[in-house]
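Please, is this right?
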Amino acid sequence: MIEEGKPIFVQIAEQIEDDIIDGVYLPETQVPSTNEFAAFYRINPATAGKGVNLLVDDGILYKKRGIGMFVADGARERLIVKRRDAFRDEYLRPLLAEAAKLGIDPQQLTEMISTEGVSA
């Protein structure tokens, strides 16, 4: 899971986000502790904690004092909105700009996407 070029704590946060979106962690369920993440990935617990705290800062997780971290209500929906916005900014806008440069109109682009979707 750990990949070069991206901070480990960001990868931990993204993995938890993926698990929330995929339904592995439902609202009000506990996520693994920073020590569990640290042991699993063989990293410093402070690094794992930094990733978890990113999600706390975003309101995706919350802390029950003395118990652990839990998935906040509405976390999945907020993550989907965040990911859709990122998808638009990182993929869709550059795709549309390149299509315009190449003279590909929206109908042609839609057909291209539909054709690729069938073969994928």
